[in-house]
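Please study the protein below:
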Amino acid sequence: MKAKVLIVDDSSLARRTMRLLLEEMGHTVTEASDGVQALERYSLEAPDLVVLDMVMSGMYGLEVLAKIRELNPTARVIVATADIQRSTADEVHAAGATALINKPINRQELTRVIGSALNGSTP
């Protein structure tokens, strides 16, 4: 399934790398560099999937996730983080994320997690 994906990350390098991988998979990509911009893009463009960084200036990733959930309770949001602590994974899942993926992003893992999220199965 090809999808419209919103990448939210304050790192331009991370966005560029993720965009390249997603476009190679055939997805259409838009970007946001912070939480406020992400919410604007989400409202205007209604992406099929969001890949969301946890740590950004201005608004923490879980705040963005909560606001996206308010806009669309069935939104598919994958949280991407370098934090590998179990407590972080538990917090992300409790907040309603579709999946968690660890940075640095691995092409195979990204392909698997996005495919599962778009198909509605558990990644």
In short: Helices lie at 12-24, 35-45, 61-71, 86-94, 107-119.
